[in-house]
C-alpha cells in the first residue's frame, strides 16, 4: 500500500525501536522494549523511499555520464559518517547535492564531488570530531562556531569530502550558513521549517526532509530536476543572502582549514 503523493511519507512504514513479543492467554502481543523511546520516536518514524520511476525518467531524459567510481566512494563515506553519528545519537539528514541526488535520481551526483549532511546546531557534540576520526574521516574545515554559521568538513583517505552544515531554527524558518575563507564573508540559506522522515538508501539508514521537494526548491529553484554542472555556492542558490563578515581578529578561531591562513592544530584528534 504505497501513497501516490511523492511528497508524503511512504504509507504504513515506520522505523521504530525494537519490540518484544509476549503472550497473554496464548495471544502474541508485541510491546516496545523501551516505551519512552518509542513514544519519542513515533513522531519522526515515518519512512520515505526514493522514487525509482522518477529516477528512470531522469536517466532517460538526460545523458548523464557514468560515475560509478565516485558512487562507490560516496556510498562508503556515507556509511562511515552515518555509523559515527548514529553511535553518538546525533540526528542528521541528507542535504544539498546529496539530498538532490537521492530524490531526483536515487543515486549520487557524480560531478558534485562531495557529500552533504545537515544537523541541527542544538544537536552538536564535541565528540563528533574524534568519533569521525575513529571511523576514518579526518577534520578538514572548521568554519564559524556552534551558535552561528557553523560548518564542519571531513575527508576520507582518498580525499573525498563530507560537508556538515549546522541548521538554526527561527520561528517558521530554518537556516544554515556558509563562510568564504578568503574574505571572511558569511552567507545565509533560509528554508521553511521542515519535519524529518527516515529513508533506507544503499543499505544506509538516514533522515531526509519529509517534504523533500519544497526543501529542494528553496535550495535549487523550480528547475531542480534539470542537471546543472556549473554552480556557485555563494550566488546560485535562490535562498542565499550575504550575512555579514567575520571580524578579522576572530579568523584564527572561526576560519580554519588545511589550506586556510589558520590551520587545524588542536582541533584534530
Summarize the structure.
This protein is an alpha+beta fold and 269 residues long. It has helices at 35-42, 52-61, 68-88, 96-105, 128-134, 212-220, 251-254, and strands spanning 10-14, 19-24, 27-32, 46-47, 93-94, 114-120, 138-145, 148-155, 161-170, 173-179, 185-192, 196-201, 204-209, 240-245, 255-257.
Task: Describe, in plain words, how this protein is organized in 3D.
With 269 residues, this protein is an alpha+beta fold. It is 26% helix and 33% strand. The chain has helices at 35-42, 52-61, 68-88, 96-105, 128-134, 212-220, 251-254; strands at 10-14, 19-24, 27-32, 46-47, 93-94, 114-120, 138-145, 148-155, 161-170, 173-179, 185-192, 196-201, 204-209, 240-245, 255-257. α3 (68-88) packs across α5 and α4 (96-105) crosses α6. The longest helix is centred in the N-terminal third of the chain and has 21 residues, at 68-88. The protein is globular, with a radius of gyration of 20 Å.
Quick tags:
269 residues; alpha+beta; nine-stranded mixed sheet; two-stranded antiparallel sheet; 15 strands
Give the SSE map.
Elements: E1 10-14, E2 19-24, E3 27-32, H1 35-42, E4 46-47, H2 52-61, H3 68-88, E5 93-94, H4 96-105, E6 114-120, H5 128-134, E7 138-145, E8 148-155, E9 161-170, E10 173-179, E11 185-192, E12 196-201, E13 204-209, H6 212-220, E14 240-245, H7 251-254, E15 255-257
Parallel strand pairs: 6-9
Antiparallel strand pairs: 1-4, 2-3, 5-6, 7-8, 7-15, 8-9, 9-10, 10-11, 11-14, 12-13
Amino acid at each position: 500500500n504505497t501513497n501516490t503523493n511523492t511528497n508524503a511519507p511512504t504509507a504504513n512504514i515506520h522505523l521504530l525501536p525494537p519490540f518484544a513479543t509476549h503472550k497473554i492467554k496464548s495471544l502474541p502481543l508485541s510491546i516496545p522494549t523501551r516505551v519512552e523511546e518509542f513514544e519519542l520516536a513515533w513522531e519522526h518514524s515515518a519512512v520515505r523511499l526514493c522514487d525509482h520511476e522518477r529516477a528512470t525518467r531522469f536517466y532517460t531524459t538526460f545523458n548523464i555520464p557514468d560515475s560509478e567510481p565516485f558512487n562507490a566512494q560516496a556510498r562508503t563515506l556515507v556509511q562511515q559518517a552515518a555509523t559515527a553519528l548514529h553511535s553518538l545519537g546525533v540526528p542528521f539528514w541528507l542535504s544539498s547535492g546529496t539530498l538532490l541526488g537521492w530524490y531526483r535520481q536515487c543515486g549520487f551526483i557524480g560531478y558534485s564531488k562531495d557529500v552533504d549532511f545537515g544537523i541541527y546546531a542544538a544537536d552538536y557534540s564535541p565528540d563528533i570530531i574524534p568519533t569521525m576520526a575513529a571511523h576514518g574521516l579526518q577534520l578538514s574545515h572548521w568554519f564559524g562556531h556552534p551558535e552561528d554559521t557553523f560548518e564542519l568538513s571531513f575527508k576520507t583517505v582518498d580525499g573525498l569530502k563530507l560537508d556538515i552544515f549546522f541548521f538554526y531554527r527561527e520561528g517558521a524558518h530554518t537556516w544554515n550558513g556558509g563562510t568564504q575563507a578568503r574574505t571572511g564573508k558569511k552567507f545565509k540559506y533560509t528554508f521553511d521549517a521542515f519535519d524529518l522522515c527516515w529513508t533506507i538508501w544503499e543499505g544506509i539508514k538516514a533522515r531526509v526532509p519529509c517534504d523533500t521537494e519544497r526543501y529542494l526548491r528553496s535550495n535549487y529553484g523550480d528547475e531542480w530536476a534539470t542537471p546543472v554542472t556549473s554552480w556557485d555556492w555563494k550566488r546560485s542558490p535562490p535562498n542565499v543572502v550575504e550575512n555579514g563578515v567575520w571580524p578579522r581578529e576572530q579568523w584564527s578561531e572561526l576560519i580554519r582549514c588545511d589550506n586556510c591562513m589558520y590551520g587545524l592544530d588542536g582541533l584534530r584528534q
